[in-house]
Amino acid sequence: MSTETSLPGPEISEFVTSSQAAKRLGLSMATIQKLVDNNILQAWRTFGGHRRIALSSVLRYQNANSFDKISRLPSDRHSKVMMVIESQDLTTRLSKEVAQWGLPVQVSFFESLTEALLELLSDKHELLVVQTTAPRKEQEKFLEILQKFINSRHTVAHTLVLSQEEDLLATLNPDANPVSIQVFDKDLSPLWMSAYLAGFVAQRRG
Fold first, then answer.
1. Quick count: other Cβ atoms within 10 Å of Cβ 111?
2. Cα 94 to Cα 12: distance, rounded to the nearest angstrom
3. What is the pLDDT of residue 166?
4. pLDDT digits over 66-121, tens only?
5. Are the C-beta atoms of residues 203 and 157 closer than 8 Å to each other?
6. Order of strands across the sheet with 79-84?
7. What distance in Å separates the CA atoms of residue 126 and residue 49, rounded to the nearest whole number?
8. What is the pLDDT averaged over residues 149-165?
9. Which CATH class is domain 15-65?
10. Average pLDDT of the chain?
11. pTM to 2 decimals?
């Protein structure tokens, strides 16, 4: 369900149009629409029906992904994506739907972070997605492990952690906090994931 409303406007004072957001992020208008529909970008409509997108959400999306700091991919190469998912049912569902998204991605699924990191020792990936509902202490521990791994190996360009725990990144060492780790309070639904990957791929090829 989209966060877009028809109210006079949100409390935030700064906003951009869809075309301005698309230009800043280097994405198509269709991708911007998809990101809005899936609550990745926060938007509202004026009484005249014009969409306005919160600049804060555009900057947050841009900065969190740090796309400008990682190398671009050739247009003919698929992005390698690794997903660590606790639910076997969700893994089965996602593996079936990925092929229907029509995105240039090569997705592999793992049951544990340990298995994923072992794979990353020998094979570079553009994106690592980790879904977790573990107790907070366990999440803090694996986030610390991720931080050390990313800083030492550089075999994954960006890491997305989906967790309902707040302020997880604040537990990391601020002197060695990699900008390539992003934490979202979000359930891993196929619809939301396809929107996120569409934006990710578009930025990498922009």
1. 13
2. 35
3. 80
4. 544 445 555 567 899 999 998 899 999 999 999 898 899 999 999 999 899 989 98
5. no
6. 105-110, 79-84, 125-131, 156-162, 181-184
7. 38
8. 87
9. mainly alpha
10. 81
11. 0.70
Give the C-alpha separation, 57 to 10, whole Å: 12
φ and ψ of 128, to 5 deg: -120, 120
The domain 68-205 belongs to what CATH superfamily? Response regulator (3.40.50.2300)
Strand order in the sheet with 15-16: 15-16, 51-54, 43-45
The lowest-confidence range among 13-17, 33-37, 76-80, 185-189 is 13-17
Domain boundaries, the chain: 15-65, 68-205
| Segment 52-64, tens digit of pLDDT | 898 888 877 776 6
Burial (0-12, 13-18, 19+ Cβ within 10 Å), 75: exposed
Fold match flag (15-65 vs 68-205): no
Residue type, 70: I
